[in-house]
Amino acid sequence: MASKIAPPPPSDPYKKLGAPQLLRIHELMVRARLLEERLIKMSKGGDGFFWIGGPGEEAFNVPLGLHVKKGHGVNFDFLHLHYRSSAIVLSLGAKPIDALRQMRSVGADPYSKGRNFVNHYAIPEFNVVPVSPTIETQYATSIGTAIAQARAKTDAITIVNGGDAGTAEGDFHSCLVWANRPVLPLPLLIVVVNNGYGISTKEETQHGEKNISDWAKVFPDMPGKTVDGNDVASSWAALDEAFAYIRKNRKPYLLEARCSRLYGHSSSSGANRIPEPDGIELLEKNMTSRGLAKADELKKVWEREAAELDAAHQQVKKEPFPAVESVWEDVFADGLPPSYPTKGGS
Amino acid sequence: MANMAQAIRMALHRGESELGVTEIFGEDVGAPLGGVFTATQGLERAWNSPLDERGIIGAALGLAWAGGRPVAEIQFVDYIFNVVDMLKLCANGYWSSGGKYKTPLVVMTPTGSGIHGSMYHSHSFDSVAAKLHGMKVVCPSTPNDAYGLMIAAIKSDDPVLFLKPKALLRTKGEELLPGEPDEKTLHDMIDAPLGDRTKWKPRWPKLGEYEVEIGKARISHPGTDATVVTHGRMAPICLDVARRFAAEGRGSVEVLDLRSLIPYDWEAITASVRKTGRVIFVNEETEIANFGEHLIRRVVDELFYQLKVRPRLLAGKATPGVALSPALENFIQPQTPDVERALSELLAEPA
């Protein structure tokens, strides 16, 4: 009797990912996109203030989030994100309503109690450390959690995420040097999402590097790669390789993702739709053309997610703003000393 | 009697052996040097970092977020200015995250003048440090206070900036720590030999409990006629002058060694000023936007009617740097005769 031989894996990367996984990715991408568009509307409509976010990065950020070993403590992955990482935190399980709360700066904002800009998360249960408006400092702080994981017996890693323009800052280069110290290489995924701009300044006018990932070339033990971050399958494959390399070898990996910036830098530059490639449109074409999903089915995802967002927005509108006395909470871990000056002058 | 560097070293050893400190790091902090002032010599958990202040503070913050209690060093406070925004992240992370992330870390750094350090080994940092709201800031003037404050800093769930007065790191105290051996024995036990140190290991003395609460000042010399509020390098100078004034019958001066700048011991300042009605704030930072100026404003606001004469500040002169030539450094930075003159005037002014 002839033995059964399994068919070779499909060479088509979308078929390889398969419909269930692609539908999961699609749903999260839509959720992230609709959330960002809602946040922009809130910013423009006086239902919040400054907006900055990551529409256009979903095709890379959702696969990234789905690769994370999520949890709390050194035995789970740490994430040092920036303000364009909404699709990552949603993929971890963060709720869109919490971003709406931060945009409206209500007291129930779980990330900052109404103190910080939108998309500035702090989620200890997922090891998402506080996001700061400062550019590139996350590359310096990522060193610390990665040291803790390099010491521990774990396969958990640290992921740091930022933009192309910020790589001119010294903190990016601190991260590269510390990640590659011969005495203690770090299990660190160094991600740079390259959208081609620093606010209004084009990357090619300021950066002579052909690829930002070329910085990896000077470190023998650190692979570097540039990937099309608008394409889900390419992003997934690159992340698969990078996560596996770091988890196994306990060494760093530099991954650059070229992504669109679909609404410009922030509300300060108008936050209007820009004609750049759209990763969700691309994914939907790749799914429907292969018979991995039907257009109607995908459309329903948009409708369902929009309805949930509507309900969440209505709820947040009813929530109170923080009490002014709350500014004295969380100044010190052991409370405010009784004689601490609180009058703001005489 | 331990000097301040030895006291800090012993506190850090207690930190690494009993209080959960797993990383003590910075430039030249590990073997073979053990710190440019030897404050980390012989410590098991001490290691050398790249020459990169931003990486050092970033690493400390990440380690704290990962559940550690790191102690990081900036080799001289003069090198800390390129990392002020990282220190702000340490200070504001608990608040900005709505209380989600505590930041238990210690940043220690030698501060101030007095070692002929010229432009970039003489800075003070008090006023900038005091504006890193959310950060606790301490600055001892004796080995025992340095030991006790380091223990408290390590235990604290807040970030603590531990300012080590450069000029005092080699000075000895007047009292032994509980269980501290005599000077020669201590030297033989914990000071690395000159030359090859590869096989040397310290023998740590077993010390008794000793901790100085952050936020509590110490009256180093009681008095009734005038109050000196000081800290760090100026504290022993003020103490010497107060003792001499007492011995010579020139006035009873109370010296309040703040020890903690943030939070500062307003209750202790209040009690002393109420008693004496005369107060001077003495520190070695430049006079413009000086930390002592804030305290003077608060004294005027809250203790105006208890004052007999105007409150004063004795501070460094607002030059772009501290000059190398001793004549210039001694002119720029307050010295013993300046303290003596300022105190004489404070005591002599008619109420």
Describe what you observe in this structure:
The complex is a heterodimer of chains A (346) and B (351). Chain A has a single domain (19-314), classed as 3-Layer(aba) Sandwich (Rossmann fold). Chain A is 40% helix and 9% strand. Chain A has helices at residues 13-17, 19-44, 58-67, 86-92, 96-104, 137-151, 170-179, 203-206, 232-249, 279-289, 295-317; strands spanning 78-80, 158-163, 188-194, 197-198, 201-202, 224-228, 253-258. In chain A, the strands form 2 sheets. A 5-stranded parallel sheet of chain A has the order 1-2-3-7-6, sandwiched between helices. The relative contact order of chain A is 0.16. Chain B is of the alpha/beta class and 351 residues long. The longest helix of chain B has 15 residues, at 4-18. Chain B is globular.
Under the CATH scheme, the architecture of the largest domain in chain B is 3-Layer(aba) Sandwich
Broad structural category of chain B: alpha/beta
Instruction: Please give the largest β-sheet of chain B.
Output: 7 strands, mixed
Q: How many helical stretches of chain A? A: 11
Mean pLDDT of chain A: 96
Q: What would you report as the Rg of chain B, rounded to the nearest angstrom?
A: 20 Å
Beginning-to-end CA distance, first to last residue of chain B: 43 Å
Overall geometric form of chain B: globular
The strand order across the widest sheet of chain A is: 1-2-3-7-6
Number of strands of chain B: 12
CATH fold assignment of the largest domain in chain B: Rossmann fold
- The domain count of chain A comes to 1
SSE class of chain A: alpha/beta
Strand content of chain B: 15-25%
Shape of chain A: globular
- What is the residue-averaged pLDDT of chain B? 97
Quote the distance from N terminus to C terminus of chain A: 95 Å
| SSE ordering of chain B | HEEHEHEHEHEHEEHEEHEHEHH
Total number of distinct structural domains of chain B: 2
Helix fraction of chain A by DSSP (H/I, runs of at least 4): 25-40%
